[in-house]
Write a structure and sequence with these properties.
mainly alpha
Length: 79
């Protein structure tokens, strides 16, 4: 793959990650150069965004019930 194509792919990946709301601190050049720690920060940003969406979904489900216990992993409904 040509260097220009790599840079365009890296820019696209970062732009799409930011568009979904992930906090991205790496630059496209970090991806092209293969800096492992910066690539890891991109995955961490995407994973944290995924967890935020999951938590919101669980919490909104629990709010509809009269009594609940909310934890990070699940929602237990009290009877």
């Amino acid at each position: 793959m040509a260097p220009d194509e790599r840079l365009q792919n890296a820019q696209l990946a970062i732009n799409l990650s930011r568009k979904i709301g992930a906090k991205i601190y790496a630059s496209p050049m970090d991806l092209v150069e293969g800096k492992q720690k910066m690539i890891l920060t991109i995955f961490v940003g995407l994973m944290s965004r995924s967890f935020e969406k999951a938590e919101k979904g669980i919490f909104s489900m629990c709010r509809r019930t009269p009594f609940f216990i909310f934890s990070v992993n699940k929602c237990e409904i009290l009877n």
